[in-house]
Amino acid sequence: MIRYILRRLLGAIPTLFLVVTVAFFLIRIAPGGPFDAERALEPTVLANLNAYFHLDKPLYEQYFRYLGNLLQGDMGPSFFRRDFSVHELLADGLPVSMLLGSLALLMAVVFGSILGCIAALRQNSWIDYTVIAIATFGITVPNFVVAPILALIFGVALNLLPTGGWGGGHPANLVMPVIALGLPQVAVIARLIRGAMIEALRSDHVRTARAYGLPTRMIVVTHSLRAACLPAVSYLGPAAAGLLTGSIVIEQVFGLPGIGREFVNAALSRDYTLVMGTVIVIAVFVLIFNLIVDILYAALDPRVRYE
Amino acid sequence: MTDPILDIKDIHVSFDTPDGPVDAVRGVNMKVIPGETVAIVGESGSGKSQAMMATMGLLADNGTVRGSAIYRGTQLIGMSKSDLNKIRGAKITMIFQEPMTSLDPLYSIEFQICEPLRVHGGLSKQAARDRALELLELVQIPNAKDRLKAYPHELSGGQRQRVMIAMALANNPDLLIADEPTTALDVTIQAEILALLADLQKRLGMSILFITHDLGIVDAFADRVYVMRAGQVVEEGPAEQIFNAPREDYTKLLLGAEPDGTKDPVPETAPMVLSANDMVVTFSSGGGFLGGKLREVKAVKDVSLSLQKGQTLGIVGESGSGKSTLGRAILQLLPSDGRVVFADNVISGLSRHQMQAYRRDLQMVFQDPYGSLSPRMTVGEIVTEGLLVHEPGISAKDRDRRATEALRAVDLDPAVRRRFPHEFSGGQRQRIAIARAVILRPTVMVLDEPTSALDRSVQKQIITLLRDIQTELELSYIFISHDLSVVRALSDTVMVMKNGEVVEHGSTANIFNAPTSDYTRHLMRAAFDLKSVLKEHANTIA
Fold first, then answer.
1. What is the CB-side half-sphere exposure of residue A268 using CA atoms within 13 A?
2. Which residue of chain A has the CA closest to B164?
3. Which of A15, A86, A251, B360 is a Cys-bridge partner for A75, taking CB atoms 3.0 to 4.6 Å apart?
4. pLDDT in tens, B454-509
5. How confident is the model at residue A306 (pLDDT cuts 50, 70, 90)?
């Protein structure tokens, strides 16, 4: 098991290297640069800035310099928010995004599985149809619609919750962002669990369990739910990575200082180093969560256990 | 007469389907006496399984049951689930056809055998484990102690069925309902499982209700027989009477449904159409990018064969013998080593593109008539698809004419062209699959278990059809099957395979009448003389 994990982590290194390389050159292909503004800078100032950040060097040299610094854990200074290093910006934003994301993830797993299970056990009843309707709604209505509506109702009209801001991570400030972020995920999980559960309940081994007089609880929990979790687990890997690394829409609407917002702003302002920093963070999360999915999979299903 | 242990009276089962209600069982009466073995025989769709599913409260959600089923004075029909759960898995237990899927793949066999023990017998964890071990030994699983922790996928089909039997025996049932328990198994494994069941019954004294489509088993195994057709019992009686003096035409039809006849030999001067020399197929796994051990398995080892015009070569073997792999390798559908010559051209080692020129001459028909026809294409489209590739020049009208001819050749009404595969029975679908191959006027057809998924009576029709088409179109067949009687009815020469090697190769008459290898003899006895195999078993135990 530990050998397997080590091997996977080792295998992640070339992937990460590839991501860094592709991202580095892609962002450089994009027109414009970090110091282009509405009003062009004095040529000498621009030249000084470029020289200071080594942007006057050939591209390959910049690339190797970046790579070398990165290996020492230095992601460089932010080009746009010039008083901060990329490291500092990420260290500020990531905890916010991760807190939001993990709460949304928890909500998705708990409510998604419960709704999916209930719908499957009451297939084609009004409960089932209600769950499907909610799920379809959750998937189709984008969160840039859900978020302002929530803010309008609970923040403005009812005045129960703050309409935005971080508030130092106060729970009241988290409620609406978490709901807006988690709702589509609840919907997806509910649908996945429902489908897999219906299939599991019809399987031959569940027929065996019924033929052997096992109580309903065992048939549902032991012999159906475990198998029904598998597709949801594979979906949750990449989804979790996405949730924990921030959502531009939610962070923008509720004015939260997460890294989702940072990422988009950085890309728009050609803040090369900050873009690279966020790309690396997201890539690391995706790799880690894919590993977690594979380990969970092996724990759930003996047929895919690793040596 | 002793009181019956199970008394079924006037059971009706119907299913609510989108096309309206379907009556699967229509007024069935059956009795099981303590200690006896009763067989229910019928072809697919006869309602034999559903009658028992209804009795046990296991119908699908859209099924309803009427009638009476009394187990030791207790009415089972309409009983509450919790009361029924005290009987199911304790007093009446079941084993099923699919040993691959009837056990939960996510739990160890120990867990699954212990479950009913703990639920019904209230055994402690340790006591249940001890009993599970005892049961595994009872069903003769080798190294039972080590196997307790095994998962279903780590066991062979026969072993899984033994585990199911262990589960069934766990709480000392009165009645064991076995629903086609050996249908998915090889004949030699089938003989072992049946011998085990017969032995256990003798020792433990329970009754067995055995559901099957195979009259051969019934003869060797059952005391009394019910013959079912279209939801009703058409004949019942002691097994001897059913076999020696059947009254009903349908019973006679079932008894006569064993494939018979042999193939007329081809003249010795018939030209050679296909030969394969030293065929080797190797499968490898592991050995990924980051290491891991590379494992190689030779699925086919140095097999050579030849085929004359109009000849049929039967390839016989149990699952895992490499017979299907060999068939595919000959048609260059799998990478393989060895030299294959078709009509004086070497076709082994050709690229996909070069192979294209030979594809129409070398056709294949597969086992599963459900999976091998695209559900979204009409029969006409399925049958003519090959023409679009191999004769792109011909007009739509000509294609349609050819489809009509091909469908007539397989005895289907050409009007079926506009319908979809799901509207047809298994036998009809297999005819469509054959028409799809025949329309291209091939030289060689590889038939991979084309009759295995079909009922015996349908099987017989398909065999006759294959023989007729062969004579008419001067086809050569490579016929792959685990079913010895089908192979005997169709082949000129037979090759017996085991573990990727040829055990025996010779004329059909020689192989069947005077087999030289022990393995072939063993296979023949399990297939054709089950009765004496079981008797022998009983004697060795007694």
1. 7
2. A208
3. A86
4. 888 888 888 989 999 999 989 999 999 988 889 999 999 999 999 999 999 999 99
5. low
Nearest-Cα residue of chain A relative to residue B292:
A307
Domain total in chain B: 1
The beta strands (E) that lie in B180-328 are given as: 207-212, 224-229, 232-238, 272-285, 295-308, 312-317
- Domains in chain A, CATH or no CATH each: 103-269+281-304 (1.10.3720.10)
Pairing relationship of beta strands B312-317 and B295-308 according to DSSP bridges: unpaired
pLDDT band at residue B537 using 50, 70 and 90 as cut-offs = confident
Domain with B107 in it? 101-170
Q: Tell me what the mean pLDDT of segment A34-61 comes to.
A: 81
Q: A214 is written with which tokens?
A: 């096992």
Which residues in chain B touch residue A208, judged by CB atoms under 8 angstroms apart?
94, 96, 102-104, 164, 167
Whether B161 contacts B191, CB under 8 Å:
no
Contacts of A218 in chain B (CB under 8 A): 115, 119
Non-local (6+) Cβ contacts of A3 within 8 A are none
For A76-98, what is each residue's pLDDT tens digit? 888 877 788 888 888 888 999 99
Closest CA–CA distance from residue A73 to any residue of chain B (Å): 26
SS3 (DSSP) at B497: strand
pLDDT at B1: 59
CA B340, CA B446: separation in Å to the nearest integer?
14
Q: What is the pLDDT of residue A116?
A: 93
Does B151 map to a domain? yes
How far is the C-alpha of B357 from the C-alpha of B368, rounded, in Å? 27
Buried b (16+ CB within 10 A) or exposed e, B345-356: eebbeeeeeebe
Burial B95-106 (b: 16+ CB within 10 A, else e): bbbbbebbbbeb
**DSSP category for residue B450:** T
Query: Which residues in chain A have their CB less than 8 angstroms from residue B289's CB?
Result: 11
- C-beta of residue A29 within 8 angstroms of C-beta of residue A275: no
Inside any domain, residue B416: no
CA distance B17 to B25: 15
* Pairs of CB atoms within 8 A across A/B: 83
Q: Find all residues with CB under 8 Å of B160, minimum gap 6, and list them.
A: B99, B100, B102, B103, B152
DSSP letter (8 states) at residue B348:
T
CB B182, CB B190: distance < 8 Å: yes
ipTM score of complex: 0.81
pLDDT above 70: residue A174: yes
Length of chain B: 542
Which 3 state secondary structure label does DSSP give B482? coil
Query: Residue A75: what pLDDT?
Result: 85
Report d(CA B330, CA B313) in Å as an integer.
13
B241 within domain boundaries: no
Optimal mutation site among A208, A221, A223, interface B, most CBs of chain B within 10 A: A208
User: What CA–CA distance (Å, rounded) separates B276 from B341?
Assistant: 6
SS3 A98: helix
Which tokens go with A169? 């991570």
Does residue B305 contact residue B494 with C-beta atoms inside 8 Å?
A: no
Is it the case that residue B427 has pLDDT exceeding 90? no
What's the CA gap between B321 and B502, in Å, rounded? 9
Of B93, B106, B107, the CB nearest to A212: B93
Q: Which residue has the tokens 């724990």?
A: A299
Q: What percent of chain B clears pLDDT 70, i.e. is strictly above it?
A: 98
pLDDT in tens, B109-142: 999 999 999 999 888 999 999 999 999 998 888 8
Q: Is residue B306 part of a domain?
A: no
The span from the CA of B382 to the CA of B389, in Å, is: 12
Query: What tokens appear for A53 in the block?
Result: 């950040």
User: What residues have CB less than 8 Å from A288, skipping those under 6 apart?
Assistant: A241
Residues in B closer than 8 angstroms to A11, CB to CB, are: 289-290
